[in-house]
Design a protein that fits this description.
Elements: E1 12-17, H1 41-61, E2 65-70, E3 87-89, E4 94-97, H2 111-119, E5 127-130, H3 143-146, E6 148-150, E7 155-159, H4 166-176, E8 179-183, E9 200-202, E10 206-209, H5 217-229, E11 233-236, H6 239-243, E12 250-253, E13 259-264, H7 265-270, H8 273-282, E14 284-288, H9 291-297, H10 301-304, E15 306-307
Parallel strand pairs: 1-2, 4-5, 7-8, 10-11, 13-14
Antiparallel strand pairs: 1-15, 3-4, 6-7, 9-10, 12-13
Helix pairs in contact: 1-9
Length: about 325
């Protein structure tokens, strides 16, 4: 169990440079956001490589420490560009590893990366909590894709889906001292939304959520009440904005203490002037176009960033 006080915002992120990126057939059934491209796998990889460098540079230019590791050609991990699904990093030195639904995503878990953060980059890893044993029972929790963490108030928001199961949520909550706010969320076709971070983000004083996607009014009210009671101003997204990945944003902070919200250019374009003004009261926006990554793999900028809250870190 962890009890260390933790900031909501990180100033360093882990990113995985794609090597054989493509739309993953093993995840298509549960992810209705993916597979919306006619590009060949080779074209998807070439475009993703350029988009990856663009968002990494945009973050670095704003002062965020971006630690990039190359994916490995073998075994083939088409979704390795999304490390937040297999790992999370916490302020007490805990690293959590997560159970993944798709078999070809499980080899994304990279002990060598965790070792490098500790031995090469100066972050302090004190313990590893490995939840991957739940895969044997067919139960999954795909990191901060499945959960949106309010780290300050120790709340894990999670929409249940084939990739997010209550028993694993309970295991995480018990080990990491979190309260779980679980709910059901669906798209406009009433299909379960595969990851919570597609529909919501929680920052320091701002929360962005497609509350329309939560059909049960009691569940929706409970989520909104929790966000308000923890001091968050709420920006409500439409279904169309969620489909443009506007919910898939992540708030970070520069070493100088300036908050930033990272999102894709598609997400930024979908927001209204009024929504942008509200967001701008809390943080400045950093964005880059990643249309191919979004259309091919069904994930966006937040999915590409595993924020590093570990103590330490070399200058």
């Amino acid at each position: 169990m962890t009890t260390s006080k933790e900031s909501q915002l990180a100033s360093a992120v882990l990113m995985i440079r794609p090597v054989r990126f493509q739309s993953n057939p093993k995840t298509a059934e549960s992810n209705k956001f993916q597979g919306k491209t006619r590009a060949t796998p080779a074209e998807q990889q070439a475009l993703a490589a350029a988009e990856f460098e663009g968002i990494a540079r945009a973050l670095e230019d704003r002062g965020i420490k971006v630690l990039c590791f190359d994916d490995t050609p073998e075994p083939h991990t088409p979704d390795a560009i999304f490390p937040n699904n297999w790992v999370s990093f916490h302020a007490d030195g805990t690293v959590v590893l997560y159970p993944m639904m798709a078999v070809n995503r499980r080899t994304e878990r990279r002990p060598d990366i965790i070792e490098a953060l500790d031995e090469k980059h100066g972050f302090e890893v004190r313990q590893v909590v490995d939840l991957s044993q739940h895969e044997a029972n067919g139960h999954f929790l795909e990191g901060t894709g499945s959960m949106v963490l309010d780290r300050v108030n120790r709340i894990a928001y999670a929409c249940l889906s084939p990739r997010t199961h209550l028993d694993v949520l309970g295991d995480f909550a018990q080990r990491m001292d979190y309260e779980v706010v679980a709910f059901d969320a669906v798209d406009r076709d009433a299909a379960a939304i595969y990851h919570t971070n597609v529909l919501m983000n929680v920052g320091r004083t701002l929360a962005v959520i497609c509350d329309e996607a939560i059909p049960d009014s009691k569940q929706r009210d409970a989520v909104m009440k929790s966000l308000v009671e923890t001091g968050h101003e709420i920006v409500s997204l439409s279904m169309q904005q969620m489909e443009s990945f506007a919910g898939n944003m992540l708030e970070l902070v520069t070493p100088a203490g300036k908050p930033l919200i990272a999102m894709s250019e598609r997400a930024r374009r979908s927001l209204t002037d009024a929504q942008l003004a509200t967001i701008g009261k809390h943080a400045s926006i950093v964005s880059a176009p990643i249309d191919n990554i979004e259309s091919s793999a069904g994930g966006s900028v937040r999915c590409m960033l595993a924020e590093i809250h570990l103590p330490g870190g070399a200058a």
